[in-house]
Every structure is written in C-alpha cells, then in structure tokens.
C-alpha cells in the first residue's frame, strides 16, 4: 500500500493533463519562444557572442530550464491551492486510507512531471523552429539538472499552495520571489557578469547552480559536481520541509 | 461492540470549547442523528470521528479503532459525505468513483463492477461520462453519496446531506439512506427536523458542545407532552384577543401569525378559564397541537439566531 495513494493522485493529475495537453503545451511554449525571438533575434545585432557561443545558443538552455521549473512551481502551487481551497478534494483524499505523505508526494511528483514535460516541449519547439542544435550526448547531464530543479520548484509551489489561502498572494510570491530568483540567476546573462566580490555568493544560490550548471552541461557537456551537489541538497531539504509543512498544516 | 464510542471528547479552538466532554455510544446498524444549531459542535465531532481533526482530550473509537492511534484502520471502514460537494470537477462521474476505489486499494475488476452498480443505484449511469459541473445540485449530492459507498464502508457519516436540495432530491437521498440501513451504521447531522424524524432510530440534540437530550423521535416529542400547546384562530378582533391572551399569567408562550395564535398553557386545567374569557363568538378554530421535533429543538436550544 506504500505510496499507492501518491501514485493514484499522480495518475489522476496526468489524466487531467492529457485531456488538455495540446492547449497546455501551446500556452507553455508561447512565452519562452517570445523571449527567444525578441532577445535572441531582435537584439542579435547588439549582442556579441557570450562565453564563446552566439547569444541565441547561450540563452536556449536557460529558457528551457526556466520553462520547466516555472511550470513545476505553477502546477504545484495552483493545483494544491485549488484542491485544498476551491474543490476541497484534499479533504476527500484525507478520509481514505492513504496518508498525508501520499498526498503531498503525489502532488510534488505531478508538479515535477509537468515541469519536465513542458521543458521538453519548449526544447523541441526551439530545436524545430531555430537552427540551434546540441550534442545528444550532453542531454543526460542536462536532464539531471532539470530533474533536480523541477523537484525544488515543485516543492516550493506545494508549500505556497499549502500555506497561502488567497490566490493573489501566490501571484505576489511568483512576482517578488520566483521571477527575480530565475532572472537574476543567469537565464539571459552569464554569472561572470556579476562583480567579482558577488560572484562566489551568487554561485551557491540553488537557482544559479541550476541555470549555470544546466547551461554548462548542455553546451559544453561539463557536469559540475559541486553545482549538482548544491541542487541535490536543496532538493532533498525542500522535499523533507514540504512534507513536514503539509503534514503540520493538515493537523491544524 | 458499539460502532461508535466517544468518551469525554473535548475540542477547543482558542478560548472556544467547540466540543465539551462529549460522550456517546452508537450501536451497530443504527441510523443516528446529531442535531444542533450552527456552531453547536456537530461538524467538529464528525471531523474528529473521520480523523480530520485531533481531539484535545477524551477518546473516540470507530468500530473499535482509536481515531488518534489507528487513523488508517478507521478510514478503511468509513464513508464520508461532507457538507460541500467536494467532487473532482476535472474527472467524470465515473472517474470520481474510480479514484475513490483506487485510494481504497480496490482491484480493477472489483472497481469496475462496484462503480457501475453504484452509478445505477443513484440513477447516474446515463451520465457516467459527464463532468460534475454539468450536474444539478441533487445529482452532485447523489454522486457524493455514491463515492462514499464505493468501498462498502461499515460506518457512513453524512454531514447535512440534503442541505440546499429540492424536495424531490431530498427524498431521493433519504431513500438511498434508508436502503443502506441494514448494511451499515449511519451517523448524520442535519438542520431538517423532518429528516431526523423520518430517518433516524436515535437522535441526540446538542448545543455549546454538550449533549442536551438523547432518544428516539417519539421519546423526544414525549418530553414536550407536558407543554399543552394549542392553536387558536379568530374570525375577527384578533388584536383585542391578543391583548386578552397576553394578560393571562397561565399563558406561558404566545406567538401570532395574522389571526392565528400558537400558545402554550401552564396546565391542562387552564383551558376552561381561557375559553370562558374569550368566548366562542369570534373563534374560527381551536385545536391541540402535537409537539414536533422542531418544538423540542427550539425548547432546548432557544430561539436566538446563531451565526
């Protein structure tokens, strides 16, 4: 029976996603593709190569990663909030033999899956619509960053959906915490742009480890153990904290 | 063994004691109703018994399992119909039931059979592939009842199961509840006195977290037999008669609706002096009023409107 409940909840979320897969993917691809076209092509004449590669190639991994982790955050936060406050299905789950751990783990994995799927969709769109190509041998290393990053953001979303009762507060967290964290962590510019004194501090921020590490993995095939370790430790702590926070909230 | 056993159950929210040393035993196979005004503590008790809430003190057992220590065993045995229709609006009617079966660890073949049987029972088999948002309130309620029955629970909790339903849907839900009577213990809360009167073997009225009275509908109404309640209707001069009736010390309560008066007397012997005083010229109707469960409820919990 262990984690049967989590699997059932994940299966339910995937069934619902499948029903609206096309519109979801179109919606999720639109925004990063706009960034890609606006910055990559619109500013092409003004931006020289970055770290030895054309800007369009430099920003592609960050955009894919950004899509994956924001999708993981959004899905987890809104889904948890909706099931808890609007539909109240969390309460329906809680009067069945499954445990609160099943519920929170099921929701985290759903968010993570959605993030990974949407990241792949954006990657496919960029590959199909532009000339950007990567070495397939670099994909495994890149995916390990995506997996850990989606897990961290899925946990963060689940915590927001668990603790925040007003939807506008979730929107504020996205605007004030999530977006700055992503944008300042090297999606559009290299960490080397930061002043020397700040750089080492910026590198230990998990989102920098995510964006910088995933870019290095995809473009150069370099798997930075230190960055993976920062991200893995963050994912582990985030997972344990999310499960504990959800458990505590449900006991109120 | 009792299906439900509560001893000294207490739950506080800050300075408010929602359930105050509440004790109760409910025998297996009973249809039991917990009545009380808003905020009396009914839903808190259901939430404790269904393991959604932990009591601050006391014990509660469902089919012998402790709700605090053996929550998972308790949840295997219970079905819950909450106040809100907390259906999954992104799943069809059938998928809602299948999801419930999965969460109870039921096998695929058994799930298919049981789900189809229940959809038939609640009259929704023709709408099995439709989403709950397209259903009326009554249909959604029937689906919630069906969902609570998927795993064949031994105790069914219904928290105000017919609130907001039209009379036809209410009666449909009553019929399902009555049809389940022999196979499980049913614990319901309701604001509708006729519902408790029609369905339940045993009723407890509670207020401020405590039980006030316990018995069958007939036993509770019997408590009011001493109340000597009458109805008087006048053809004319109702205002003059109101002043006369209000002046009698033996008239314990008086309510007026147009030219109809409902009153209770201090004793049967006061009926004659009353009739002598008002005469028969303007009287259209005079009759003894049988006490209803609502009379008992109002007598015990007062007329004050609760928030």
Q: What attributes characterize this protein structure?
A:
heterodimer, A: 252 residues, mainly alpha, 10 helices, 78% helix, B: 307 residues, alpha/beta, Rossmann fold, Alpha-Beta Plaits, 2 domains, six-stranded mixed sheet, four-stranded antiparallel sheet, 11 helices, 28% strand, elongated
Descriptive overview:
The complex is a heterodimer of chains A (252) and B (307). Chain A is mostly helical and 252 residues long. Chain A has one domain (22-250). Helix content of chain A is 78%, strand content 0%. Chain A has helices at 4-19, 21-42, 55-86, 89-94, 100-129, 139-163, 167-183, 196-203, 206-220, 225-250. The radius of gyration of chain A is 19 Å and the shape is globular. The model of chain A has no long low-confidence stretch (mean pLDDT 88). Chain B is an alpha/beta fold. Chain B folds into two domains: 4-222, 3-Layer(aba) Sandwich (Rossmann fold); 225-290, Alpha-Beta Plaits, CATH 3.30.70.100. Chain B has eleven helices and 14 strands. Chain B has helices at 42-49, 71-77, 93-103, 108-121, 137-149, 167-180, 193-199, 217-222, 238-247, 271-278, 293-301, and strands at 4-13, 16-26, 31-35, 57-62, 65-66, 78-81, 155-159, 185-190, 202-207, 210-215, 229-234, 251-257, 260-265, 283-288. In chain B, the strands form three sheets. A six-stranded mixed beta sheet of chain B has the order 6-7-8-3-9-10, with helices on both faces. In chain B, helix 3 crosses helix 4 (108-121). The model of chain B has no long low-confidence stretch (mean pLDDT 89). At the A-B interface, helix 1 and helix 4 of A face helix 2 and helix 3 of B.
